[in-house]
């Protein structure tokens, strides 16, 4: 199968293959600037079969204009652009979120079927109800027993869980990237303050090692924080039931063409089985999991044109790292 969107400078070769399988609800197209389909993946082919080889044909008349403007914006920009467009089959709930960039005079696009979004919304509504029920229960209990302090940590952690779920949902949907060119050290600093506070609260030993860099990366700070929060949450959740000292280590290091951020934990690690399924939307091994954290992290890193890597040794721990390219001076 041809991989169109995640080209070499964007994701490593192995990463590319994983992506192809993971995001099976994605449609990908490579277009000429005027919208003729040059290549597409299997899901994209379904649209081509139905509507022909012109991108604009995928849309009903009233959104075709939007689609045209979108193509124009893309062909004039080197940045990733995200737009929500609805395709012709929208009455079957197949609206499409397009995310694209141009390279070599071609436009590369990836679309998400909203069926997936619909499924996700249902999941999230469901997921939000659980912590809400718990919060309500504990508040009632503390009112009754007058032991508010006893229940406060649970209530706060449930509220945190709701924040994460909401943030993930928002990113998965329509929020645009807000990139700033910045020194990766600056990002490391805010990551460290975030991590050290969370680790302290959770009684986890935290340490870090950050190398100074003279170069800049293009970063959406909020999205990067979201990646770190997801990775941290996974690490903390992996410690559940662990009796020996829990440790989290953050490293920021300069590499040849970019900067690498990595987070290691000494949790239980993952079996090959789990590793193979990682990043598949909605894959989770937790009873309260949403299975969205890692696939979202991958999406955000891919939007930054970076690479994402997970390595894990059972009974020893897990390291998740991502690499962001430097902007050329
Ligand atoms: N640091 C980690 N240690 C062990 N397992 C992990 C770690 N991070 C992720 N995983 C595994 O990957 C799965 C998917 O993670 P994620 O996409 O964040 O969804 P969720 O946390 O909701 O399960 C988890 O259910 C867990 O099995
Ligand atoms: Mg998670």
UniProtKB/TrEMBL annotation:
<dbReference type="GO" id="GO:0005524">
    <property type="term" value="F:ATP binding"/>
</dbReference>
<dbReference type="InterPro" id="IPR003661">
    <property type="entry name" value="HisK_dim/P_dom"/>
</dbReference>
<keyword id="KW-0418">Kinase</keyword>
<keyword id="KW-0902">Two-component regulatory system</keyword>
<dbReference type="InterPro" id="IPR004358">
    <property type="entry name" value="Sig_transdc_His_kin-like_C"/>
</dbReference>
<dbReference type="InterPro" id="IPR005467">
    <property type="entry name" value="His_kinase_dom"/>
</dbReference>
<dbReference type="InterPro" id="IPR036890">
    <property type="entry name" value="HATPase_C_sf"/>
</dbReference>
<dbReference type="Pfam" id="PF00512">
    <property type="entry name" value="HisKA"/>
</dbReference>
<keyword id="KW-0808">Transferase</keyword>
<keyword id="KW-0067">ATP-binding</keyword>
<dbReference type="InterPro" id="IPR036097">
    <property type="entry name" value="HisK_dim/P_sf"/>
</dbReference>
<dbReference type="InterPro" id="IPR050736">
    <property type="entry name" value="Sensor_HK_Regulatory"/>
</dbReference>
<protein>
    <recommendedName>
        <fullName>histidine kinase</fullName>
        <ecNumber>2.7.13.3</ecNumber>
    </recommendedName>
</protein>
<keyword id="KW-0547">Nucleotide-binding</keyword>
<dbReference type="Pfam" id="PF02518">
    <property type="entry name" value="HATPase_c"/>
</dbReference>
<feature type="domain" description="Histidine kinase">
    <location>
        <begin position="123"/>
        <end position="328"/>
    </location>
</feature>
<keyword id="KW-0597">Phosphoprotein</keyword>
<dbReference type="InterPro" id="IPR003594">
    <property type="entry name" value="HATPase_dom"/>
</dbReference>
């Amino acid at each position: 199968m041809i991989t169109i969107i995640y080209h070499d400078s964007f994701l490593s070769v192995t990463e590319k293959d994983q992506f192809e399988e993971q995001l099976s609800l994605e449609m990908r197209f490579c277009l000429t600037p005027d919208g003729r389909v040059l290549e597409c993946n299997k899901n994209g082919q379904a649209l081509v079969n139905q509507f022909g080889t012109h991108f604009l044909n995928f849309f009903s008349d009233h959104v075709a204009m939007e689609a045209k403007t979108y193509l124009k914006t893309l062909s004039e920009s080197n940045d990733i652009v995200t737009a929500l467009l609805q395709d012709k089959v929208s009455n079957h709930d197949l609206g499409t979120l397009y995310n694209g960039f141009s390279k070599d005079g071609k436009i590369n696009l990836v679309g998400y079927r909203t069926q997936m979004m619909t499924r996700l919304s249902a999941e999230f509504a469901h997921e939000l109800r659980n912590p809400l029920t718990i919060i309500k229960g504990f508040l009632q209990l503390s009112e009754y027993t007058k032991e508010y302090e006893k229940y406060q940590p649970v209530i706060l952690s449930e509220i945190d869980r709701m924040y994460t779920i909401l943030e993930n949902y928002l990113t998965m949907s329509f929020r645009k990237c807000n990139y700033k060119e910045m020194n990766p050290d600056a990002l490391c600093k805010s990551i460290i303050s975030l991590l050290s506070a969370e680790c302290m609260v959770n009684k986890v030993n935290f340490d870090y090692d950050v190398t100074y860099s003279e170069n800049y990366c293009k970063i959406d700070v909020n999205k990067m924080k979201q990646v770190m929060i997801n990775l941290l949450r996974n690490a903390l959740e992996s410690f559940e039931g662990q009796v020996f000292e829990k440790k989290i280590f953050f490293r920021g290091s300069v590499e040849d063409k970019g900067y690498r951020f990595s987070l290691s934990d000494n949790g239980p690690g993952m079996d090959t089985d789990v590793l193979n399924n990682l990043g598949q939307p909605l894959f989770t091994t937790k009873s309260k999991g949403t299975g969205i954290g890692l696939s979202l992290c991958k999406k955000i890193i891919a939007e930054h044109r970076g690479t994402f890597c997970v390595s894990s040794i059972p009974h020893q721990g897990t390291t998740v790292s991502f690499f962001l390219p430097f902007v050329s001076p």
